[in-house]
């Protein structure tokens, strides 16, 4: 069933979500969306990198449809006004507005917390993601040309931002 026909619940991630989130990462992060496929070796490794509360998760019923992760780019107090995002939507639930709802929820949470800037990185070989981020109001802020070699071709890493 399509998520647009059901109520979408967006909430902070919890410990019990780890397994579903690891599965979603395995589905989403491949050679076209990341410099290398994302593989978690254990639940413990995943939880160290993505502790509970570090993501907004979207559920329809008991099905995880997507998430947006957020973290401080560094431990510097002078950069506490910036959050770096990463977003994933389950392939079966794409083009239903879930990604946009997750970005909007992250924006509202950032505003409440006094965050002034959201940023993300995307590969130039992922035009669908680029178009999505632009439609959400993100602007290209910088580009690292030929930053990665993916399947024998050089790919740029594009840095994008959205001011809160």
Could you characterize what this model shows?
With 164 residues, the chain is α+β, with helices and mostly antiparallel strands. The protein has one domain: 3-Layer(aba) Sandwich (Aminopeptidase). It contains 4 helices and 7 strands, in the order βααβββαβαββ. The chain has helices at 18-28, 43-49, 98-112, 127-135; strands at 8-12, 55-60, 63-71, 82-89, 117-123, 139-150, 153-163. A 7-stranded mixed beta sheet has the order 1-2-3-4-5-7-6, with helices on both faces. A hairpin with a 2-residue loop joins β6 and β7. The longest helix has 15 residues, at 98-112. The protein is globular. The N and C termini lie far apart (34 Å). The model has no long low-confidence stretch (mean pLDDT 94).
Which key phrases capture this entry?
globular; 26% helix; 164 residues; Aminopeptidase; 4 helices
Question: What is the distance, rounded to the nearest whole angstrom, between the alpha carbons of the first and last residues?
Answer: 34 Å
Radius of gyration: 16 Å
Question: Approximately how much beta-strand content do the residues carry?
Answer: 35-45%
Q: Count of DSSP E strands?
A: 7
CATH topology: Aminopeptidase
Give the neighbour order of strands across the main sheet.
1-2-3-4-5-7-6
Major sheet details: 7 strands, mixed
> What is the number of independent domains?
1
What does the average pLDDT come to? 94
Helix content: 25-40%
**Tertiary shape:** globular
Which CATH class is shown? Alpha Beta
At CATH's second level, what is the architecture? Answer: 3-Layer(aba) Sandwich
Number of helical runs?
Answer: 4
Low-confidence stretches: none
Which structural class should the secondary elements be placed in? alpha+beta
| Fourth-level CATH superfamily | Gcn5-related N-acetyltransferase (GNAT)
Order of helices and strands: EHHEEEHEHEE
Protein name: GNAT family N-acetyltransferase
InterPro entries: Acyl_CoA_acyltransferase (IPR016181), Bact_Acetyltransf (IPR050832), GNAT_dom (IPR000182)
Pfam families: Acetyltransf_1 (PF00583)
Domain N-acetyltransferase: 8-164
